[in-house]
Structures
1.
Amino acid sequence: MDKIKDRLKNVKSIINSINPNAKLVVVSKFFPEENILEVLNEGHNIFGESKAQELRDKYENLKNKKIEWHFIGSIQTNKIKYIVPICDLIHSVYREKEMKEIDKRAKENGKIQQILLEVNVSGEESKSGININSVKNLLNSSLKFENIRVVGLMTMAPLTENEEIIRSTFKKLKDLKEELKDEYKDLKELSMGMSNDFKIALEEGATIVRIGSKIFGKRNY
Ligand SMILES: *Cc1c(COP(=O)(O)O)cnc(C)c1O
């Protein structure tokens, strides 16, 4: 059970046992292209990156492969022009000025950019994302941008070993989505769960999980 192939299989079987419809984003940030190729060889082609430059480089070098790229990292407004042409989904949007720039670049590229709003459920100072009480306002703001579509919410659990705290974080986001989904029909996705907590996230309703180290091994930052 040491190889990428085996670890990927293992992760997929856990996902299947909880929610077979959930989407797996394999987080390849800081891992080399040869690791991505191993995963592609297993028939999985959805990857997440967190840095615009790394995303661009990998995109260019793997251009001949059919890959669905997701952007999951913190957004620098001046890098949005590189992200939009490449990515199917941007998970980490939480400021109106980012929406405005994404909308502009999406228009230039003749696409409707799907995005998620990143929510700071736990309210930790160190975390990015919008306060949970402001999500509705930001959703309203998003409606004026014709070339973006908010298709769901994303969060990261607080760094803790306490499973109940992690679980309640995910549950709060799920409850919020349920509350908003009648008014915002496109709000379908819940991107939550990483290597250490994706089982809990799936149990609490995640539709997308973002998993890196459990498949590729330890990451060297
Ligand atoms: C790095 C990262 C992940 C994956 O983390 P692992 O612990 O390696 O699974 C998921 N989501 C975001 C936003 C990340 O930055």
2.
Amino acid sequence: MYVSSRGAAAQLTAAQAIAQGIAPDGGLFVPAAIPSIEGLFLDRLVPLTYQQRAAAVLDLFLTDYTNAEVAACVAGAYGSGKFDAAAVAPVIKVKEGTFALELWHGPTSAFKDMALQLLPQLLVCALKKIGEQAKIVILVATSGDTGKAALEGFKDVEQTQVIVFYPEAGVSRIQRLQMITQEGDNLQVIAVKGNFDDAQTGVKQIFNDAAYNAALTEHGCKLSSANSINWGRLVPQIVYYFSAYADLVKAKHIRQGVPVNFVVPTGNFGNILAGYYAKQMGLPINKLICASNSNNVLTEFLTTGLYNRNRQFHKTFSPSMDILISSNLERLLYHLTGGDSAQVKQWMTELNTTGQYKIADDCLAAIHALFPAAWVSDEVTAATISQVHKEHDYPLDPHTAVAWQVAENYRRQSGDTTPVVIVSTASPFKFNETVLAALTGSDSLAGQTEFAALQELAKIINRPVPPALAELESKPVRHTVVCDKQDMPAIVKAQLQLR
Ligand SMILES: *Cc1c(COP(=O)(O)O)cnc(C)c1O
């Protein structure tokens, strides 16, 4: 069963929690009890496919779904042709004691696919189970990665419609092309005249407008969100920690039971929190190392216990980690305080009103035991991309490079020799401009198109351009609507063909 991190009384089934998304008191749904694995669970995972491992892990959390339902959801998400690696999330040995868990073989070349391919399957199944008839309208404001991953995940999924708003001049050319060429009959992509905050504020206003929502309900529509506050986006991510461990055992890199460290490039704290659940379930994890860029709010928090969002926002080479409010931290705090939802609620209220809160010493001690944290600058990130390519012939995207360097620094400073898995969150091709500049030492693409840049990068790193990115050049543009930010509510109604 699932409860709100802020204490609303009702316990919900997984299907109810996934269909609701966010708890009525503004909290996030958390499992009332974290399931634990028994002795042979890991042994049994070793010979299995990713899909089978996913079903085995998900069955422990989605106890109101039948095994057949879970298996069908998993097949729909990770089945034939969706991922360009048979292993779905392969583990690569880069050097002695350091491995990369590649989470970017899905349709959009970034790790959001791991969750956003499965969430729609879980949601549709949930709607059937609870008898919800309304059409679920997913509104997304995106700075790039989430929008495209949501479009791919919800494309032609029954009983759902997706409307993505992106800032007209605020996404990379590849990201824009990925979205405006999107195929599917249940989705719209709309450029907003403004920046990401304008798009996000517009979406939030729609969500919070009671009269507007009532009008939608009357027409059989219900708004929902695809971001990582939904339990259905978090639970798929627990799977790849288990799968990575099983792969290490299978390839005889470690013996069953030996602990490993995971280093996670972190923004909203969703990815690394999934690792925390895996550890609590009994997966042999020693440390979960939190890697940040110069938006180092989490480094400070995990080190000192003070969460302080009152700081300058930096645009970095790793834009998907340019975040000052890590919403999934709320779930961690709930568990670390032993489910003290009144305390969690108080901290979140302080964050809202003053922009900061400080946790108690015992809670901080628990964090210190598990979550080393550090950050690196853009300069160091670029140097890391270049160095790892030279020394190990392994290309890193900027987010993964942050994690790599934090892992190196941690190992040196702590003397901890535990095998390390770097959680790799994007293909280097997705951030080709930064990667090319790091590898060639030149600052600009010198007027090249994105596609020429992709081909040049392919030559330098001697790896093929992911087909979905290469194909963009020849795909027809299908979405051309541009709107002013104040017109977003009217645009949604128009897209839903309501008056
Ligand atoms: C979203 C994203 C992250 C951050 O993940 P969180 O779950 O928000 O911590 C890191 N790298 C890439 C490439 C991403 O798209």
